[in-house]
Structure prediction request, 113 residues.
Amino acid sequence: MDPVGLAETVSVSLCSLAVLLWMSIGTFSRTEAAELLAQRVIAALCIISAILLFALHHMGGELWGSRNVARPLAVVAVIVALAGMLNIKGKDIRGETNPHNIAKIRQEKKPKD
Prediction:
């Protein structure tokens, strides 16, 4: 297989795998360690595929019959990499109590009959 064809196949495969992992991040977020690992794998796959897509464009390769698709798809891969690094569970940045905790506190304060 020529280098252009290999770059096409590998870049599209890595993008597809990264998007599938990103869609199933909820499964990986059951533990913080697994979520962090999944985020790093997604980001790595997306960055590698973006590099390959930029290289593919400069080698004159085509994706789906168009020479102009590789660069925008590389930008999308970078965006997915950044979005994959977002924390699903969230962190309490402001220190405010959320409505669920308020309801739980009220339930605990109610006198028991």
User: Anything to note?
Assistant: The longest helix spans residues 32-59. The mean pLDDT is 79. The chain has one domain: 3-90. Helices lie at 3-23, 25-28, 32-59, 70-84, 99-109.
